Amino acid sequence: MDPERGTLVRTNHFLTPTPAAQEKTWLYQPDSGRRHDLIRYRLTLNTPTGPDELVALLRSGAGEAPLTCVPDMSLPQGERWATLATVILEPAARTARVLDGTPVDTGTRPWRRLTA
User: Fold this and answer.
1) DSSP 93
2) Helix (H, G, I), strand (E, B) or coil at 98
3) Among 8-12, 22-26, 47-51, 55-59, which range has the highest average pLDDT?
4) Cα(60)–Cα(49) distance, integer angstroms
5) Model pLDDT for residues 60-85, shown as the tens digit of each residue
6) What are phi and psi of 22, to 5 degrees?
């Protein structure tokens, strides 16, 4: 896999031919390709200089692929998918930052910082 402007873009589908051949994207992650394409497109417009700027790219607007899951409360329990955490891993600094919520919650909730 090739990084996109220094960033490895990952969603929930295989990007190489061998594993992708057996994948059931239509069943398990029907919008994964759209999300992957949206992030790649955003990276062509803007190169983040740090993790906080990268997290800002993970917010979806109206009509865009949903980059995070916001529960639809009109659906029955068990079908109200939700993104529960946003995680920034910084291997060189040996740290992880965890936010209780989606990238939209940045600035409204505290990040937990873990150091190895």
Assistant:
1) G
2) strand
3) 55-59
4) 20
5) 988 998 898 888 899 999 888 889 99
6) -105, 5
